[in-house]
C-alpha cells in the first residue's frame, strides 16, 4: 500500500501552514469588507477548519480508492458534494455561534457562491495533488518490483549456468574409482579425495563471487587431475601465466567449463595425444585467458565449437558485463583457440 | 570359447569389465579398443560373439560404429549417462550397463546373453537401437565406409542425395559416397529446413539450388550450383515452395 500523503512530516507542515496562511488571509479579507475582528476570526477559523477537514478526507480516501483511468468525473462529483457540505456546514456553525448578527449572517448567505467556488477549487486541487502523488508512488513500486524480479531471474540463471556440471563427468569418475578400488586402492582413495575437493569447491562458491586467478587455477587443477586419471594415456595439460597475474580476479567457475569444453572437444574430435594449453596474461585492464585444444577441421563443424558448451559461458559474461565480445573462438591448422577477456573492476 | 572385444575410450572402464569377466572363464577378451575405428577393425578381423560397447567415444560414437558393420555381433552397451540412448535401449529390449555398475548387475547381463546367445534377435535389436538413435538424435554428420576407409561427412557439405538400388548415394563437392540406408531414413532425420525431398529418388540441400526451370506439366528441373540438373516432381515442388517461402 502506498504511504499516506499526510504521513510525510514535510507535507503535514505544508498542510498546516496553508491552513494558517489561508486563515490569516481570510481574516484580512473579511476585515477589509468591514467585518469586525471577532467575527472575521470566527468566520475564517470555521471555514478553513472545515476546508482542511474536507481536503484531508478526500486525500485520505484517494489513498484507498484510486479512480481508474478516465474516471476522474467521480472525483469531481465528490469534490462538488464536499464543497456543498463545506459551505452549508459553515453556514450552520456560524448561525449557531453568532445568532444575533443578522447583517453578518446575511453577508455570509450572499457570499455562498463565492465560498462554494473557492471550496471547490481548494478541494479539487488537493484531490488532484493526491492523485498525482499516489499514482507516482504506485509506479515507483511497480518499477521496483520489476527490477527485483529481473535481479532474481538473473541470479537464478547465473546459478543454473554455474551449476551445469556434466553428469557424464561425475558418473565416469565414479566408474574410474570403481575400477581402481580392486587393484589400486590407494589411487582410488586419492581420487575420491580429489573428486570430493572438486565438488566441495563447486558448491561453496557464492553467487557472483569473484576469485583470484590463483584460486581458480588451484580448483581447476583438481578437475584436471581427475580427468588425467580417466584419460592419462592421451591427455596432457600445460598451464602458464604472466607475471603478477595471480592476483587478478575473475568470476568463480568461469574457467572450468571452458577447459572442460576444450578437453571434450580435443578428446572426442581426435584419436591421438591431446595437449590442452591454458595461458593467462594481463592486458591493459583485462585478464586474458587463452585455452587451446587440438581438433579436426575436416570433420568438425566450426560452429560446433560454440555449440558445445561455450554458449553458457557467453551468456554468463553477458549477464555480468552486458557485453557480447568477451569470448572469442578461432580454429587454425588443427588447433582450436578459445579466449576470454575479463574486465578488472 | 566365446570371443569378446571391449570398446571404450577409458582404460579404467575396460579394466572393470575385464575384472568382472574373470568370473566367466568361457569368455575370452581378444582385444581392447579405445575408439570406434579400432573397434571396427577388430570386429572385422576377429568376428567376436559379443562386444562391450561405450557410446561416447572419439571421432565416431558407438552407434555410428555399429551402423558401419555389415554383420554386427551381439552388444552389451556400457554408458555413464545418456537419457536418449536409455530410452532406445528400453524400447528395443537391449541390455545396457550404467556406469558405474556392480558385479551383480554385470553378471545378470552376461548370463542373460549366454542363455539366449543363439537367438538372432539380440543382434538385430542392437542394430535397431543404433539406427533409431542416429536417426532421431540431432546429428550434424553422416559416417560412411568405403572399403576400409571411414569418412565423416558434415551435413553442411552434402549437395544432394540420390537413391541407388538398396543404397543412398551422398554427393559432396569432394565426391560421392554410398550408404546402406533408405531415402526415407535420410528424409526423416535431415533438417527439413535445409533438405527437401524433391523427387522419389532425390533429396537436395536447398542452398545448392540456383534455378528452377519448368520441365513438363507441373514438374520442374532444379539446377544446382555445380551445374547438375535434378528432376523435381509435383509434390516435390510443393515442398520446395514451402521451404523457400515462394
UniProtKB/TrEMBL annotation, chain A:
Pfam family, one: His_kinase
Domain of life per record: Bacteria
Stored InterPro entries: Bact_2-comp_sensor_kinase, HATPase_C_sf, Sig_transdc_His_kin_internal
GO molecular function terms noted in the UniProt entry: phosphorelay sensor kinase activity
Transmembrane segments: 12-33, 39-60, 72-94, 114-135
Stretches assigned to the Signal transduction histidine kinase internal region domain: 156-235
Keyword tRNA-binding appears in the UniProt entry: no
Keyword list, A-Z: Kinase, Membrane, Transferase, Transmembrane, Transmembrane helix
Assigned GO CC terms: membrane
Protein name per its UniProtKB record: Sensor histidine kinase
Organism of origin: Hufsiella arboris
Lineage: Bacteria, Pseudomonadati, Bacteroidota, Sphingobacteriia, Sphingobacteriales
Automatic annotation (TrEMBL), chain B:
GO molecular function: DNA binding; phosphorelay response regulator activity
CDD domains found in the cross-reference section: REC_LytTR_AlgR-like
Domain of life (superkingdom): Bacteria
Residues covered by the HTH LytTR-type domain: 142-246
Cell inner membrane is among the record's keywords: no
Post-translational modification 4-aspartylphosphate, affected residues: 54
Domain Response regulatory span(s) in chain numbering: 3-114
Keyword annotations from UniProtKB, A to Z: Phosphoprotein
PROSITE patterns registered for this protein in UniProt: HTH_LYTTR, RESPONSE_REGULATORY
InterPro entries hit by this protein: CheY-like_superfamily (IPR011006), LytR-like (IPR046947), LytTR_DNA-bd_dom (IPR007492), Sig_transdc_resp-reg_receiver (IPR001789)
Record-linked PANTHER family: STAGE 0 SPORULATION PROTEIN A HOMOLOG (PTHR37299:SF1), TRANSCRIPTIONAL REGULATOR-RELATED (PTHR37299)
Protein name (record): Response regulator
Organism of provenance: Hufsiella arboris
